[in-house]
Design a protein that fits this description.
- It is a single chain.
- With 77 residues, this protein is an all-alpha fold.
- It contains four helices and no strands.
- Helix 2 packs across helix 3 and helix 2 packs across helix 4.
Length: 77
């Protein structure tokens, strides 16, 4: 059985993977996404690597910049 921390990590990594997939599907660079979302390029990079405990506000900014609903970040591919 997974611990609560392991479950959170799984969601973080799922979101990270989906953000990258959606971004690449739209042929956007990390820098381009960061510019549109009003975030720093290194922040977007660390979010996509699952290193950041991203805030709800940042998830909303990324979703808006990518033209998707936030729920898309948590849906399996």
């Amino acid at each position: 059985m997974k611990t609560p921390r392991e479950k959170r990590m799984k969601l973080r990594l799922l979101a990270a993977k989906r953000i990258r997939q959606i971004r690449e599907g739209k042929e956007l660079s990390q820098e381009g996404l960061a510019d549109i979302a009003g975030l720093h390029r290194t922040y977007v990079s660390s979010v996509e690597r699952g290193e950041r405990n991203v805030t709800v506000d940042s998830l909303e900014r990324l979703a808006e910049a990518l033209g998707v609903d936030v729920r898309a970040f948590f849906e399996p591919e």
